[in-house]
Amino acid sequence: MRPLLLGLLLLGFAATALARPRPHYAVPGHEKPVALLHAGKTTYLVTERSVFRLEGAAFVRKHQIEQPIQCATVADTALWLGTRAGVQTLSTATFRAHPLPLPGPDAAPGITAVFRDARGAMWVGANGQGVFRWAGNAFTQELHTPAINGGVATADSSVWIATSIGLSRKQGAEWTRYNEEGVANHEIPDNIVEKLLPDNAGNLWVVMSDAICVFENNGQCGAAEEELPTVKFIGRPGNEVFGVASVAGTGRLFATAQGLLLLPNEPAGFASFAPATDKVEPKRLLVPVALPASVGTPVLLEIDKQQRLWLASTEGVAVLTGKELRRLATSPPDPLSKKEGAPVLSKRNID
């Protein structure tokens, strides 16, 4: 197993790093955040029923919608909103909505994925109908799998689709399916893929019903033949993971239902095991990051081009500068608080 996921643990007693994010933007309505989008110098926050634009020191509501928004992205001069009743585009100039019916018997199904690939094409996943690509001002069906749970694109031009019967990946014209049965050595530990979480380092985190694995940026081409770094859970059993960000030289931050958790980088000289080993990985503690109550529990996190950490919750949006983030990530643990926890198991141990 590669060192990326070595020794993730159940959350035990660990040092608590205190972060004081500034600025903090209150967001009216206390709605659950869906997407935090940056387009040039403009920042948008999409919540379950609203679209906000950051104007000066405040997020200003620009659009409200009756049907709950489940996913969103930005492309050129339009926001794409995936709702429980179809796709809408929203002009970033006028904020007028325009519905885009899908082909098939249900033109406005529940949308579970909307994203832009590395070549600029738009993709839409509709639960019950499959996956569609927007080309020539029309939708073309690309995948007929009905149970679509999510989708993303990665910088290597791959398109990834989370389904309830495995993970599908398109490279060029070819689709590859990863599932529990490992057909043609394309194996993941669980068929129910609940969500896909790309991080800022180019890694793709695959969250399943009974495991979490990662396609590493520097190893995606050979992922079919190698074992993927895999753990059972992050924090504790049943802890939902909302997002992950990589902090260069320090570690990885996870936004979870337990709050913000930091996994420090491996210490110098830390030995890793070969992928085929049956050994349980060494123990390691995650570090819970204490945020002010006004920040709430972040469900979105993102590191921008200036290396600032954006955190969004139902309470609003907070931003950590690069300096604050480094202080947060490098806070030394309290030796009195160290305590062994139960190890999270590698993929070999899950099988």
Q: How does the overall form come out from the CA principal axes?
A: globular
Question: What amount of the residues lies in strands?
Answer: 35-45%
Euclidean distance between termini CA atoms = 14 Å
Sheet having the most strands: 5 strands, mixed
Which homologous superfamily in CATH is the superfamily?
A: YVTN repeat-like/Quinoprotein amine dehydrogenase
CATH fold group: Methylamine Dehydrogenase, Chain H
The CATH architecture would be 7 Propeller
Give the number of DSSP strands: 29
Alpha-carbon Rg, integer: 20 Å
Average pLDDT rating: 81
Instruction: Figure out the total of helices.
Output: 2
- What is the subunit organization of this protein? single chain
CATH C-level class? Mainly Beta
Helix content: under 10%
Keywords: Signal
Organism: Hymenobacter armeniacus
Protein name: Transcriptional regulator
InterPro entries: WD40/YVTN_repeat-like_dom_sf
